Amino acid sequence: MLTTIRRWLKRQAATVDREAIAQEIDDNGELEGSYLFMCAMASGIATIGLLCNSVSVIIGAMLVSPLMGPIVRLGLGIAMLDIRRVFRALGTLLAGMGLALLIAILIVRLSPLRTPTPEILARTTPNLFDMIAATLSGLAGGYAMIRQRGGTIVGVAIATALMPPMAVVGFGIAVAQWRIAEGSLLLFTTNLATIALSATLMCTWYGFSGRGTRAAVAWQVVVGFAVLLPLGWPLAHALGDIASQTRLLGTVRSTLTGALSAQTVRVLDMQLDDTRRALDVTFAAQHYDMEDDAHLRQALKAALPPNLALRLSPVIMADPTRTDLSRSALSANLANAPATPTPDDDASAVITHFPLPLLSSGVDASAKTLTLAIAPAANTSLASLKQMEDTLEARLAGWQVRIVPSPRPLPPVLFARGSAEIGPDQIATLQLVSWAAQRWSIKHLIAEGRASSDGHGTAELASQRAANVRDWLEQHHLQVSLGASYPLPDQPKAEADEGIDAFRSVFLQVTDAAKAD
Fold first, then answer.
1. DSSP 8-class letter at 305
2. Which of 113, 212, 221, 437 has its CB surrounded by the most CB atoms within 10 Å?
3. Among positive and negative, which fits the CA dihedral 266, 272, 277, 282?
4. Distance CA 155, CA 279 (A)
5. Is 231 within the bounds of a domain?
6. Of 279, 297, 323, which closes a domain?
């Protein structure tokens, strides 16, 4: 069997002109003015495409990138154990990479677009599949050059995408986003090393190592392990993280659907923190109350790993299926945000990816204030909007976030049967009222006390409820006029139609109508 394979390899090697091919590979990998010019152009095209999130422009950079030439030359040098050829190829690569990096940094520094786009972020988390793809591309590239089928090299350049990762490194350096620079540099290094070693393997296959094939293969194995093992470990770890997060997302989605089976729900975003001890889940639901929250947390606690803290951010919508998953900024990839961001990058990203329709928005970088005015079509509760504001403010450290709800009736303050006491449930509602009044710049309200007609309600109780609500709101800088309605016209019939709980309440009305509009 081994003899048959050896003879077949010799026949394959005899079909190529090794001297001519080696000369052609050397010519393609030389450091020349045209090579540097193409590096600069490819870097500029790639950087603009990444900043604009344009796939077609990025593909253009892949097509003109000349880095494949010196990488294949490096593989040939390793196959032939030619140190001079190896160092000349490395010199060409370093010159092209250095120029590409400088061009990318310069363009980003001059550009007003500095927010990481999806195309940029996609090149910051390489995994083992990237190494496998680069290995296959290197084998194809080596074969194309040895068999003089150069047309294939275009497809190989697209598959390995050498220039865009280098442009992302320049972006990360330009805006001091070191995690982005580190991830994209790992991707570029992986592509470079695996293509070169794959080209080495192909050159050895076709007999470029000469009579010292065994010694060459031994050295190639040593070099391969020395290079690929340090790269393979973080890539394998990243692939394992992706697999575990995919399983976790599936568990969360199925648990959400099961726990809230009476309504339509949709997971908008899910993020694990760096310590993998806390899970942020943002989801859209048709309604969500304390009972739903307790039921969902109990179900998730049973389904998820122990010692994993949960932070749930519900977004209340009439139709969660209409939510665009790409616009989930509440938990959005601020985990991938820069350690030292430019003042308004994260705030601008929130506006771009906010999951609800906006009437208007504004960023004041000097005051670190982000304002989001919600469009009436959002149909989202005050409680959900307040929770969104708190979530964003916690994630945008040092910023003040102001979500302005669309005009709507204020929620009534509900009381227990026969009670006028301000307890935790009433305080929660009053805090929402106070928050909404601040966002609408409202200063004056009318509090209309009500009572049920089931024998426990009286006019005095309705008045006392209104007075207690007024006292709480005035402590929070609102002016409140009192009113009481007991009994209302046809109240027993209305209680039968609407439910009696609605009449154990205080209704709040805005008197600054012009302000609310």
1. P
2. 437
3. negative
4. 40
5. no
6. 323
Residues 310 and 430 in one domain: no
Query: How far is 517 from 513, CA to CA, in rounded Å?
Result: 6
Residue 93 contacts residue 70 (beta carbons within 8 Å)? yes
Average pLDDT on 242-254 reads 76
63 and 137 part of one domain = yes
pLDDT digits (tens, 9 = 90+) for 141-150: 777 777 766 5
CA distance 391 to 389: 5
Report the number of distinct structural domains present in the chain. Answer: 4
Residues 337 and 419 grouped into a single domain: no
| Dihedral over alpha carbons 151, 152, 153, 155 (to 10 degrees) | 120
CA distances, 274 to each of 183, 241, 429 (Å): 15, 11, 35
Half-sphere exposure (Cβ direction) of 222: Cα atoms closer than 13 Å: 8
Comparison of pLDDT for 341 and 25, the residue scoring more: 25
Range of the domain at 461: 413-516
Residues 423 and 402 in one domain: no
- Minimum mean pLDDT range among 153-162, 164-173, 390-399, 494-503: 153-162
Residue type, 411: P
The DSSP output letter for 200 is H
Distance (Å, rounded) from C-alpha 473 to C-alpha 427? 10
Of the residues 343, 375, 406, which one is the last residue of a structural domain?
406
Same-domain check for residues 197 and 334: no
262 and 163 together in one domain: no
DSSP 364-399: ETTTTEEEEEEPGGG---HHHHHHHHHHHHHHSTT-
* CA-based end-to-end distance of the chain: 86
Sheet with 309-316: strands ordered across: 265-272, 278-285, 309-316
Shared-domain flag, residues 342 and 299 = no
User: Could you tell me the two tokens for 274?
Assistant: 């760096």
> DSSP letters along 172-199, please?
HHHTT-HHHHHHHHHHHHHHHHHHHHHH
Q: State the SS3 of 34-101.
A: HHHHHHHHHHHHHHHHHHHCCHHHHHHHHHHCCCHHHHHHHHHHHHCCCHHHHHHHHHHHHHHHHHHH
Which residues, 6+ apart, have CB-to-CB distance to 388 below 8 Å? 313, 315, 330, 403
